[in-house]
């Protein structure tokens, strides 16, 4: 059996550098590796509505933003099926059956759900749809028989739950679903890129993001106001690297080759770091290096975005045909699920014959 990828994002905002190092970059590499038979990338608008029920316009506006971000980083609709979750209604039906296989307390223990409940102030009254989104995520993954789910570490509890559901389902109804594996980012700094303010996570609500669609001017301004080392008061004073944003970002984005090209005095990022810790290297120089590195990466992304921004109807068409294709795949799994659960009454001639016989012989 082939290798299949399913992953996706909630359309609640434009995608940023944290998304890029945490998942988008990897997705494009996986797409181009040729190792996967099928790749499904989903815009999770139904999931976004589970905590934005009162703000459908936000979700509606951001479907296209996320699609543009996908295309701009190099996801290619000829290789990856880009689709919209609400346009694959089979996913809802699967989730409805899976809910019978999961206990309330199991979801209550999910650490990602726990933090989200706190962050959204849902403690007193949790919407049922929101509470059940981890189960719906299991449908997203299993509907496509995904073997591989490339996501950030905050999604690990969802993949774990999916595996449990798969096992329970297969045990009760017979082997039907595929157990997926999580594929995490390969380095610590890619796991969780801090915000430009040095806070643990780049996040829209904290206002500390560099977006993939930011202009060169915006990128420059954001890098120049980045949190560095508060004790590094003069160029001469020895600096600290810990929690120092420009250095964390350089670790995530810069190659030694780029360092030598943009800062010819140094042969490697390590040499830059050594100079900074020793003293004699100013934040401005480090930030300038980072701006160069980021711009080299962002320029082609921006260029592709500009191309697709001029072709919006075409982008919606890509999502529409992608959703159709995704629907076919999900429908096939749903049929197998219905068969396994023996709720396919009308296609089950043995059942019909059995019931008919029962009544003919007068036994009821
Ligand atoms: N929960 C993911 C996020 O918040 C989005 C998502 C929905 C997803 N369904 C998925 C990710 C299935 C991977 C697999 O970004």
What's this entry about, in short?
Helices cover 56% and strands 6% of the residues. By secondary structure, it is mainly α. It is elongated and about 100 Å long.
Tell me the layout of helices and strands:
Layout: E1 4-9, H1 17-33, E2 38-43, H2 45-49, H3 56-73, E3 81-84, H4 90-98, H5 104-108, H6 111-119, H7 128-131, H8 133-143, E4 148-150, H9 156-173, E5 181-183, H10 188-191, H11 216-224, H12 245-253, H13 256-262, H14 269-278, H15 283-309, H16 312-340, H17 349-360
Parallel strand pairs: 1-2, 2-3, 4-5
Helix pairs in contact: 3-15, 4-8, 4-16, 8-9, 11-15, 12-15
The site of tryptophan (TRP) has 13 residues, from strand 1 and helix 8.
The low-confidence parts are none
Bound molecules: tryptophan
Overall SS class: mainly alpha
Helicity level: 55-70%
Q: What is the strand content?
A: 5-15%
Quick one: biggest sheet?
A: 3 strands, parallel
Number of helices: 17
Overall pLDDT metric: 95
Outline type: elongated
**Major beta sheet, strand line-up:** 1-2-3
- What is the helix/strand order? EHEHHEHHHHHEHEHHHHHHHH
| Termini separation | 45 Å
